[in-house]
Amino acid sequence: MEEQSIQMNLCSTRKEKPDSDQLEFGKIFTDHMFIMDYSDEKGWHDARITPYEPLRLDPSAMIFHYGQSVFEGLKAYLTSEGKVQLFRPEKNMQRLNRSNNRLCIPPIDEEFALQAIKQLVAVEKDWIPRAEGTSLYIRPFIISTEPYLGVAPSSHYQFIVILSPVGAYYKEGINPVKIAVENQYVRAVLGGTGEAKTGGNYASSLKAQEMVADQGFAQVLWLDGVEKKYIEEVGSMNVFFKINGEVVTPALNGSILEGVTRNSVIKLLKHWNVPIVERKISMEELAKANKDGTLEEAFGAGTAAVISPIGQLTWNDEDFVINHGKTGKIAKRLYDTLTGIQYGKESDPFDWIVEVEEVEQLVR
Amino acid sequence: MEEQSIQMNLCSTRKEKPDSDQLEFGKIFTDHMFIMDYSDEKGWHDARITPYEPLRLDPSAMIFHYGQSVFEGLKAYLTSEGKVQLFRPEKNMQRLNRSNNRLCIPPIDEEFALQAIKQLVAVEKDWIPRAEGTSLYIRPFIISTEPYLGVAPSSHYQFIVILSPVGAYYKEGINPVKIAVENQYVRAVLGGTGEAKTGGNYASSLKAQEMVADQGFAQVLWLDGVEKKYIEEVGSMNVFFKINGEVVTPALNGSILEGVTRNSVIKLLKHWNVPIVERKISMEELAKANKDGTLEEAFGAGTAAVISPIGQLTWNDEDFVINHGKTGKIAKRLYDTLTGIQYGKESDPFDWIVEVEEVEQLVR
């Protein structure tokens, strides 16, 4: 792709900002968005920051029919000194391109896309909420836009970035949830799209989620699609267990999404000399560990919650109450450290933070 | 759902119709479309036939992120007497609701949706091409439109029907294709969305299709996601084999789409007293039948091609040439009979045809 610049078309008036104590997730959007077009002839082109407004798409646009799309999710954090920070955003850009590959979507220039995100966040700096635990959620996504009903990769795409100020995930402090092990529905299978961040994986997960929500569970624990024996993910997070002093997480196997938080948890645990292994874990092993008292902690890891402790796991009719239903020590330490780094309160031993400079420096 | 009527807002000028000998699939659309909205408060409402025009959707509309969508595909045929015919459209409406159920989309009123399709086709009657083998393709689809980034069923949807005049699938007569057995990628697995007609299934199929197309194959033959042993579908069609005088098709198992053409093929074969069974079929069984000379025919069945004979099947490095690479007798007879019924040239023993009345009778 040739070097390109970002056209700026800013609003003359701005929307009123919401109260940062009252924020929900993903319902309010900022004044501007980033868009870039792709055609087979021109490649990615016409990068621009424009007012946030509806997309106009032909009813035959492929995204409405064949689901060819990918997305990412990350956050911008405001430090107490007024700095704007991103957390390992290059990992999201790398994964976006891995997802693109699986979905037959042309790759983006990762550095340019990250530059676009930084520039958009800088333009919208005043939208980053200040209250404890709040942030500006960043949603890059690519949709197939060719007006054609043939089942084939689209010849046209749009790469779009939108921003949403989001509230603290834990309004009353980090808190364990109840999870149901899903035996009927499957999230993904080897040879499918489980490794990619694409709409279809989320669409297919809704049914299981809907069924367990009625029974008071926060999420489902997904098992492998082949044997329904091995643990894959929890809801839309990666999952970790502490068994007899060792932290275990399912190894990446082609159907598990490679989470940025998952990778960060593994790096931190190694840094702390806490034993951590990536391998297959079966429900039977977990049941045995629960029975003999060696299942010490369980938690999910993802961008939205950072760390989500699991207080109870229900498998068929069996309830595993983990760490007396309380947040475990490792989960708490990971949560405090990760959020500490993200909000600039803790040192950043791995150079994970990418600072967003002032808009004047970005817009040339 | 309460009884509702369809508001009519017709164009004052019409587009020029394409040459019916030059038509491709799914690239040209008619003057009007049908739309109906859904909200949790109002249910399905505001049914209308309006000019065909771009949809305006918020960039955060769920369809762009989480793929919650379903669709159908059927055709309107013009008979030599000028009648407009649909083929078993009630089956498509039933399947649409089964897909809706799997994707957590509220059900539609099947009779009302079919009435809407008939009314739209009647309005666009002049768009139905007249050349041999051509038809008006009908694409009903439902998309999730709530502007919200939470992973949850949408609270807003649109049900839309668009129409596209399409050319003959076989420009030079029914013709066998070469198919590659897919060993790496998987279309669907039990517990996933394989039974539903939803975008994600098609998005995930693109990669395998792209890889075999480079090697000169028309489509892939999908194997089951668990053992990669049993045959599921071919491309986006159901598949049939004639082995030693008996026709065999994979039994519906939760990951195979229940095709309307599949069902019609089974009914016709029974009517003709041709042995037909629905059961598991492994690639090993097929290889054995190929070796001992009992693999007599193979063909796909779907709305687009009706019947698509398979002349060669390649499994790993082994090529099975079927019926000397020629269209088999059963495939030909099914193709002639099904298209004969669809175009009103053959009698319709099962009452499969639904006639579309003149627009004056439909618009009250």
Automatic annotation (TrEMBL), chains A, B:
Give the enzyme's EC designation.
2.6.1.42
List the transmembrane segments: none
Q: In which pathway does it act?
A: Amino-acid biosynthesis; L-isoleucine biosynthesis; L-isoleucine from 2-oxobutanoate: step 4/4; Amino-acid biosynthesis; L-leucine biosynthesis; L-leucine from 3-methyl-2-oxobutanoate: step 4/4; Amino-acid biosynthesis; L-valine biosynthesis; L-valine from pyruvate: step 4/4
Class of this enzyme: transferase
SUPFAM superfamilies linked: D-aminoacid aminotransferase-like PLP-dependent enzymes (SSF56752)
Domain of life assignment: Bacteria
What are its GO biological-process terms? amino acid biosynthetic process; branched-chain amino acid biosynthetic process
Keywords carried by this UniProt record: Amino-acid biosynthesis, Aminotransferase, Branched-chain amino acid biosynthesis, Pyridoxal phosphate, Transferase
| Reported cofactor(s) | pyridoxal 5'-phosphate
Kindly state which reaction or reactions the protein catalyses. L-leucine + 2-oxoglutarate = 4-methyl-2-oxopentanoate + L-glutamate; L-isoleucine + 2-oxoglutarate = (S)-3-methyl-2-oxopentanoate + L-glutamate; L-valine + 2-oxoglutarate = 3-methyl-2-oxobutanoate + L-glutamate
Q: Which CDD domains match?
A: BCAT_beta_family
One Gene Ontology term of the molecular function aspect: branched-chain-amino-acid transaminase activity
Residues modified as N6-(pyridoxal phosphate)lysine are 197
- UniProt record similarity statement: Belongs to the class-IV pyridoxal-phosphate-dependent aminotransferase family.
Name of this protein: Branched-chain-amino-acid aminotransferase
Which species does this protein come from? Answer: Lentibacillus populi
Upper classification of the source organism reads: Bacteria, Bacillati, Bacillota, Bacilli, Bacillales
